[in-house]
Amino acid sequence: MRKNTKILNFKITAIAVFLLIPFLFQGCGQKPEEIEEKILVHDPSFQDTLDARDSLRSELNAQKMDFLNKEQKLNDEIRDIKKKKTKLSNEYTLRVGKIKEQIQPKKQQLKEELLTLKRRYALQKEKIKQADNDIN
Predict the structure, then answer these.
(1) Residue 40 contacts by C-beta under 8 Å, 6 or more apart in sequence?
(2) What is the 3-state secondary structure (H, E, C) of 101-132?
(3) Per-block average pLDDT, block size 10, for the chain (136 residues)?
(4) How many helices (H) and strands (E) would you count in the chain?
């Protein structure tokens, strides 16, 4: 009996949906201008509402265009700044590379001198140690 009730409920719901669908789409094929004209025939004061709407739409479009123009200008500036940054970075890398090339020979020379001095120091230290042992 329960199964029959579920089937009956489903059939009733399906029939109701199919009967109500045309009501959902009523007026969908009409153009807004036609609807506005029909309303104005019955209520001429509605023109003030339409004029206010049109004025607001116009203002919104003007604001949108202003925003888009400013956004484009900012995007152009950002692109230019990024190009300048890349150029500056490349110049910096080149200058640093040249300086490193200039420093490298002197750096190597200083390393060699330091190694020589460390060896001399170790020799002198060893001589002092031997002399100290000889004295004692």
Answers:
(1) 46, 47, 50
(2) HHHHHHHHHHHHHHHHHHHHHHHHHHHHHHHH
(3) 71 68 62 84 87 94 97 98 98 96 93 95 92 81
(4) 3, 0
Cα separation, 96 vs 88, whole angstroms: 12
Q: Enumerate residues 6+ apart whose C-beta is below 8 A from 39.
A: 46
Q: Which two tokens stand for residue 19?
A: 């009967």
CB atoms within 10 A of CB 18: 9
Amino acid of residue 27: G
Helix (H, G, I), strand (E, B) or coil at 45: coil
- Cα–Cα distance, 7 to 19 (Å, whole number): 18
* Alpha-carbon gap, residue 118 to 14, rounded angstroms: 99
